[in-house]
Amino acid sequence: MSPTTVTKLCISSLLLVGFVTACTAPPSHRVTRTEIEGVPLIRTEGGPKYEGVLFELKRDLILGVDEGEPEWQQFGRSPKALVAPDGRMVLLDDRRTEFFIVSVDGSLLHRFGREGSGPGEFQNILNVLWKIPGREFWVTDQALSRVSRFDMNGRLLGAFSYADIRMQYSIFMSLGDGRFLGQGWRDGTRPPQSIYEYTFFTGEFEQASQFMVIDQDNMFQESAAVRMQLPFTSDQFIRIGPSGRIAHVQPNIGRLSVYSSTGEPRFHTERDHPFEPVTHEDKEGYRNSYRRRGMESVAARLTFPSHKPAWFRPPVIDDEGRIWISRYSPLLGEPEEEGGQQPELGNVWEIFSAEGVWLGTHLHKERIELITYGYLYQVFLSESGSPRFERLRIIPLVPEMEALRR
Q1: pTM of this prediction?
Q2: Does the chain have fewer CB atoms within 10 Å around its N or its C terminus?
Q3: Residue 30 pLDDT > 70, yes or no?
């Protein structure tokens, strides 16, 4: 375990500028509330509620080694994780299709899993989901179209196939009450318009009801070739929060929508940051990333939207329903920021309250995986390029974040 450190963060032109001990609301900050087809639209204007630091982070645990012991911590790829209420962790090293059950202090309790098609074996793990947090989790395997059930001792409780489901699903998410939400496409094929269906399933993966159908061509009108037109990020993200609340993010129009656990719309939210135009340098930088890999034909076919998206990575939802979304930052070919540093993609996280108000902005270099039980869990690469899995305690500095204190 590394020495304990405390980090304080502040945002100014996407740069780390120093220590701040209090947050204040900008004078221009205001929140307006209107409606879109009867659904509330919350819009934050004039900046977030707080300018400055919302919380501190205190390093608590790091897992991962380059070589040597413990051998199980030689992660081949960025590990995926579940965290139980008592702090135990389920870590997946999908390079080895192997799972590790880890204690709150980082000790290995159980390990299981290997490549294959037999009971308790995997070929292409898609999702790791809680069925009952801290007691039972499910593993979906896309290649085998199979769900395997395990307890916290790594014991296989059973398995069943979902190969006969009407649509081909790419994502399953747990709603926390024994139901699951699946994202897929009509008739098992992915049409060029990227029509998504989100369908509720019972705990036995029996199809229950359809949540919504989203035609991306209706969201973004510049081209029917939506996938080729959106090179900067995915066209949409969806995640599940507390009580099964569903957060649906449309990065390219800058809108976040929240639905109930039964698919009823609760609200939409936006903030008033202007979209940046896509420049010639942006296009050439992105094309060059394909040319360097010998994919000249792909580079030649790329088409681009007129502006860059608002956000970059999938959101993270904490225990209180706050939604953390990674802001889109400069891409290839853009000039350096003032001070000679160029921000990396996904470094700036915008935090929205459970009611849809933009609370503030957090500069965070590493990839946030989970925010739960008072801790932030992240994955980063060591200087040698090996993955590390880290747990940091959250120390709130504003009232809206106080519920994260443990």
Answers
A1: 0.80
A2: N
A3: yes
